[in-house]
Amino acid sequence: MVLASGSYFVLSPIPHEIVVGLVVFAVLFFVLSKVLLPKLDAVYAQRHDRIDGTLERAEQARAEARRADQEYRTRIGAAREEAARIRDAAREEGRRHSEEVLAAAREESSQLVAEGRGELDEERSRLRSDLQPDIARLSRDLAGRILGRQVGEDEYRDTVDSYLAQRA
């Protein structure tokens, strides 16, 4: 360094330092460009590919998820429609079965009522025929008590026949 006029130093270049600096720079540039930069480019390319691949896989996964969601919604809709159809069919079947059971119960009820009436008519006829002699005897005895004398069979029949004739 050379001291110039005034208060500061003026730098003057030294030729051999410039040459050495240029040689070292060239060697360093050559080493970096041939060894380090290709490795850095490879790492950069790998990371870029990995990021792009991850983004592509994410987009594919997103598309697959959308497709699966749409399929799920379609299947759910179909399942709901099927469930509604089954529920309606079950209701109809239940209504029809209920009507059949009710009709069978009404038929059985009518049959039981008819059988009961028939049995009652038979029992009434049987009781009439069983009680008729007793009624006739008791009414004849009652008539005798009221009249204060014995009422004969012929007189009793005539009285009953005349009463029935008046009623008819």
Defining traits:
single chain, 168 residues, mainly alpha, 2 helices, 2 strands
Provide an overview of this structure.
It is a single chain. With 168 residues, this protein is mainly alpha-helical. Helix content is 88%, strand content 2%. A two-stranded antiparallel sheet has the order 1-2. The mean pLDDT is 84.
Strand content: under 5%
Number of strands: 2
Question: Residue share in helices?
Answer: over 70%
Helix run count = 2
- End-to-end C-alpha gap: 168 Å
Spatial sequence of strands, sheet with the most strands: 1-2
For the sheet with most strands, the description reads: 2 strands, antiparallel
Query: What overall form do the CA principal axes indicate?
Result: rod-shaped
Gist of the model:
By secondary structure, the protein is mainly alpha-helical. Helix content is about 90%, strand content about 0%.
Task: Tell me the layout of helices and strands.
Elements: E1 2-3, E2 9-10, H1 15-147, H2 153-167
Antiparallel strand pairs: 1-2
